Every structure is written in structure tokens, then in C-alpha cells.
Amino acid sequence: MSVEPGDPCSPSPCGPNSQCKQVNGQGVCSCLPAYIGSPPGCRPECVVSSECAQNRACVNQKCVDPCPGTCGLNTRCEVINHSPICSCNQGFTGDPFTRCFPVPRKHVFHNITVIFFFLLVVAYGYSSGIKV
Fold first, then answer.
1. What is the number of other CB atoms lying within 10 angstroms of the CB of residue 100?
2. How confident is the model at residue 112 (pLDDT cuts 50, 70, 90)?
3. Which of 9, 16, 67, 92 has the fewest C-beta atoms under 10 angstroms from its C-beta?
4. How far apart are the first and last CA of the chain?
5. Cis ω before 33 (30° cut-off from 0)
6. Three-class SS of residue 35?
7. Contact 27, 8 (CB under 8 A)
8. Which of 42, 37, 36, 45 lies closest to 18, judged by CA?
């Protein structure tokens, strides 16, 4: 009479957040795909942002760049202490969470034209003997 060995994975010897696979009659433990570590200590990558690098945030138990999709148009995003900080690109102004617009430029050519016209009047008046 032969006794068949039982399933080495039932009950699972692996612990939480892990899986057991039978290999050559032995139970082989590994962490579930979304978890890190090794059984029985499988855990998510993070639970709070302080478990991530300073330029990452904990989102759905993963350390990720929090910038994508956070800021508006014509902006830049910098991560400081796990938080995305939005600002307008250089030469732009507005609400960096929605949209930044180009800063209006002063009309340099208009100012030059006015100065040139004034100099012409002064020169004409001087050559004509008119006091300006």
C-alpha cells in the first residue's frame, strides 16, 4: 500500500502576500507580482510617501513620479519632499495648475520710433532756428 504525498502548498506555508507553487513535490514560495521582499515578508513597495525617495510619491502602493497630469499647459513640475510643485515656464504667467500664458512684451519698436521722431523734430527745429 503506497501513500500519496499531500499537496505541499495546502495549506500554504508562504505567509501573506505570497504564493506557493509545487515544484518536484516541494512547495516553492514567492511574493505576489505587486509585492517586494521574500516570503514570509512580502510587502507592498510603499504604504506612505516617506517610504519612497524624496522625488517620488506613494500611489497605489508604488513609488512613482507624482508630476504626470498634475500641472497645466506651459508649466514645469518639480517634486519636493514627495509633492509635485507646479510653476509657469520662464516667460509665462498664470495658474500653473491649469494654464500659463506668455508674458506680454513691451513694444520696444514703438518706443524707438517715438525717440527717433523726437530727435528729428529737435534736429529740424535746431537747423531752422526754432527753439524746441
1. 22
2. low
3. 16
4. 127
5. no
6. strand
7. yes
8. 42
Question: How would you write 69-97 as a 3-class SS string?
Answer: CCCCECEEEEEECCEEEEEECCCEEEECC
Neighbouring C-beta atoms of residue 97, cutoff 10 Å: 12
Q: How far apart are CA 92 and CA 28, in angstroms?
A: 58
Given the DSSP bridges, would you call strands 83-88 and 57-59 parallel, antiparallel or unpaired?
A: unpaired
Query: What SS3 class is residue 55?
Result: coil
Average pLDDT of the chain, as a whole number: 86
Cell of 103: 508674458
pTM: predicted TM-score of the whole model, two decimal places? 0.62
- Domain coordinates in residue numbering, the chain: 66-119
The closest alpha carbon to 88, from 71, 75, 102, belongs to 75
